[in-house]
Amino acid sequence: MNLRDAPDEAAFREGVRAWLADNLPAEPGKEWSRKLHDAGYAGLTWPEEYGGRAAPYSHQAIALEEFARSGAPQHMNVIALGMAGPTIMYHGTEEQKQRYLAPMLSAEEIWCQGFSEPGAGSDLSSVRTRIEPKDEHFLVNGQKVWSSLAHLADFCILVGRSDPQSQRHAGLTYVIVDMHSPGVEVRPLRQITGEAEFNEIFFTDVEVPRENLLGDVGSGWQVAMTTLLHERGTLGFALAGVLESQVNKLVALAKERAADDPIIRDRVAQEWVELQALKLMNQRSLTTLMQTGIPGPEGSGSKLRWSEQNQRLTKLAMEINGGEDDGYWGYQQLRSRGNTIEAGTSEILRNIIAERVLALPRSR
Ligand SMILES: Cc1cc2nc3c(=O)[nH]c(=O)nc-3n(C[C@H](O)[C@H](O)[C@H](O)COP(=O)(O)OP(=O)(O)OC[C@H]3O[C@@H](n4cnc5c(N)ncnc54)[C@H](O)[C@@H]3O)c2cc1C
Question: In ligand 1, which atom is closest to the CA atom of 116?
Fold first, then answer.
């Protein structure tokens, strides 16, 4: 593939940069998300009838890269745009697409993801939350954990067990839950950074209308796989953009505090090299996405490399600072701990790469 921007891509990139120059700095939140939507930068690749711009994936990649590079806050509805929306587009009915997609882009309705449970994280097929089919609705009982944004969310994409006799991947069902329904209780969890970005969610006899089913009863595993491929697959460009601005900050710090130290210079240069490798890997994922419309397992490689590099790089910055927290790198170090756990731990991603990218024999 050609790694340089084609003329339409170069023009689009210029447009994004000009818009950012006029609209930054900005505060994260609903207002900023709405502004992104009004300017056409939310749901770039989504069909126009659902509020998107029907733009090619290459434009989406450019926008993610430029936004991250500029330090602009993200659209707050990350789970809706990155996961719930693409899943509804793939598995949803026309009524569901008409009902849910546009308000995601404008951040009128915020979404969270209810996959992990106290006894099911890496192994999603162990979920125990009950999604019991009744005549008119599903009855949901159980507990989810680590649900980012649940304290702000209007809807949750939920995976649970509809057949209590079933084992593992069979007998799972995927529904959309209105977070304002009676019986839904959200309890925030405090992280090592002191913030509370994620939550426990308790479901007690929550009635979910039949029309909120995504896919078929019992086919929840297949629907969930679409969500997870998108979770890891389309974030790569944003991650590389964030990392690029981190590497630039690291270089500036090293110049200021350790310019004469050859070992530090070498380690900083290595981080720059790794960044270039990540960018090339993202181009490979983009090729798959442009050819098939679905992110491939290569996205797991980008997420793995990015999260491990971000941890290493923030540690190096702390070292250059002599272990002192200057208010920036200390926070970055603590927050980066979660990066190798969320959206698949490093061990799980290595298994995926071994089996599905390198076609090595299964480990179990
Ligand atoms: C910041 C953050 C945000 C999150 N947001 C959400 C969210 O919005 N919604 C949601 O549903 N979840 C969310 N999660 C949860 C996340 O998906 C899980 O933490 C993750 O899947 C790991 O599951 P676990 O914590 O249960 O660990 P476990 O699965 O119990 O794993 C424990 C350890 O065992 C290792 N391990 C497990 N299985 C294997 C194996 N087969 N081979 C090798 N090693 C293995 C793991 O790598 C890990 O080191 C979030 C997590 C974080 C940190």
Answer: 11
Convert the pLDDT of each residue in 278-332 to its tens digit.
999 888 888 888 888 778 888 889 999 999 999 999 999 999 999 888 899 999 9
Stated length of the chain:
364
From the CA of 303, how far away is ligand 1's center (Å)? Answer: 14
Residue 170 neighbours by CB under 8 Å, 6+ apart: 163, 218, 221
Sign, CA dihedral 277-283-287-288, equals: positive
Handedness of CA 167, 150, 111, 292 (dihedral sign): negative
Angle at which helices 299-320 and 262-292 cross, to 10°? 160
The answer to whether residue 349 scores a pLDDT higher than 90 is yes
From the CA of 62, how far away is ligand 1's center (Å)? 30
**Per-residue pLDDT at 76 exceeds 90:** yes
- Residue from 61, 48, 33 nearest 89 by CA: 48
Task: Give the CA distances from residue 186 to residues 139, 148, 149, 172, in Å, rounded to whole numbers and listed in that order.
Answer: 18, 11, 10, 23
Contact (Cβ atoms closer than 8 angstroms) between residue 147 and residue 104 = no
Which pairs with CB-CB distance under 8 Å and at least 24 residues apart come from 313-320?
A: 313/243, 313/246, 313/247, 313/250, 313/271, 314/246, 316/250, 316/264, 316/267, 316/268, 316/271, 317/249, 317/250, 317/253, 320/250, 320/253, 320/254, 320/257, 320/258, 320/264
CB 111 within 8 A of CB 77: yes
Q: Whose CA is nearest to atom 39 of ligand 1?
A: 348
- pTM for the whole structure: 0.94
**pLDDT tens for residues 79-106?**
999 999 999 999 999 999 999 999 999 9
Measured CA to CA in angstroms, residue 317 lies from 192, 248, 333 at distances of 19, 11, 9
The residues annotated with a catalytic role in the active site are: 231
What distance in Å separates the CA atoms of residue 59 and residue 6, rounded to the nearest whole number? 11
Q: Give CA–CA dist 142/84, Å, rounded.
A: 21
Phi then psi dihedrals of residue 147, to 5 deg: -85, 105
